[in-house]
């Protein structure tokens, strides 16, 4: 199923099938501030396993999975960080950043990398905020990356064809070429830039 939705002015009624798919442990494809991404409910072990498979991450991967949240208080709930890191996070979010932090005990083990870390995102996109709000929990997220069919990465119709049978719903926000987020890694109560992407590099 493909839903045509304006990411900046999403209608809750139109987004309802995507929310229902998330509640049924399915994976969806949806637009973010950095391109199209896979998504599932944080509480869905089946969904998390599916995203890991789609991303090619095994349990020994150094790359953690990430989740979308709507509030800075969620950073304190799902991660462990020092005061200096929180000050920077508070200053730059919402925005096109992925913050890599030590996971708290409230994060499923399947989310973490081999170092016990997760990624947290809070993009400034109404559709992303509505997904989290309507679902009532964070959305596990994994960006699409270039593979055999790079042209499909920006075309929702091609994405529907490419991932038919592996995702429940494609949320069509129009053509969108991926622009990776800036990745900031928490180390010794400081944030270090791991990847320069769409988000401006902050003074940390």
Termini distance?
Answer: 43 Å
> What letter string, H or E per element, gives the SSE order?
EHEEHEHEHEEHEHEEE
Give the beta-strand count: 11
Please tell me how large the radius of gyration is. Answer: 16 Å
Under CATH, the homologous superfamily reads DHBP synthase
What is the arithmetic mean of pLDDT?
Answer: 92
Largest sheet: 11 strands, mixed
Number of domains: 1
Regions with little confidence, pLDDT below 50 for 5+ residues: none
The CATH topology is DHBP synthase
**Beta fraction:** 25-35%
* Helical run tally: 6
Structural class: alpha/beta
Structure report:
This protein is an alpha/beta fold. It has a single domain (2-195), classed as DHBP synthase. Helices cover 27% and strands 26% of the residues. It is built from 6 helices and 11 strands. The protein has helices at residues 12-23, 45-55, 73-78, 83-92, 126-135, 156-162, and strands spanning 2-4, 28-32, 35-41, 66-68, 79-80, 97-103, 117-121, 139-143, 169-172, 182-187, 190-195. Strands 1, 2, 3, 4, 5, 6, 7, 8, 9, 10 and 11 form an 11-stranded mixed β-sheet that branches. Helix 1 crosses helix 5 (126-135). It is globular. The model has no long low-confidence stretch (mean pLDDT 92).
